[in-house]
Amino acid sequence: MDARKILLIQGHPDAVTRHLGHALQEAYMQGAQAAGHEVRQVEVAHLDFPLLRSQQAWQEGALPPSLAQAQADIAWAQHIVLFFPLWLGDMPALLKGFLEQVARPGFAFKSDGTNPFGKKGLTGRSARVVVTMGMPALLYRWYFRAHSVKSLERNVLGFVGISPVKETLIGQVDQLGEAGAQKWQDKLRKLGTQAH
Fold this sequence. Notes:
The protein is an alpha/beta fold. It has 7 helices and 7 strands, in the order βαβααβαβββααβα. The protein has one domain: Flavodoxin domain (Rossmann fold, 3-Layer(aba) Sandwich), CATH 3.40.50.360. It has helices spanning 20-34, 55-60, 68-76, 93-102, 137-143, 147-157, 177-194, and strands at residues 5-10, 38-43, 79-85, 109-112, 115-120, 126-132, 165-170. The strands form 2 sheets. It has a 5-stranded parallel beta sheet, with helices on both faces.
């Protein structure tokens, strides 16, 4: 496999404490680097940016300087991996705010004649979404239909041209124990070697 450019986006909003998602991110990075892939990382919790509060600010406002490097890293990447915990059935608000800021018109999509969303700006990239949660992953996938992850895949990543998007759902994280956490880290390390 050819070396790929991989961007890891850590969406946990806690900037102080390390969580399972951080260990999974590190394992993926280790696997990717060992296989010769080039890796960059974005830690959303360490970025300072305002939330968007109007359509006009999103369409016409300037990207906050604190997010310029993150947006450049997204443009650079061939494969993007998002890590986040499921909070109240969805991604944490800070990660959603980050995605709203970086996925602006002119970058994530471009006008095509009279259709302002006509041309997807991030085609040619694939992605993986790694989500940790307290409930069983099968319950989230089948009963709740993984609604927030499907929305992210369809309405954000797919909307801007990122495809295919794979997912890794890790449930009952409070009951994994050290052996269970290590098992998932091993899986993520292997996915990293494959840039998958």
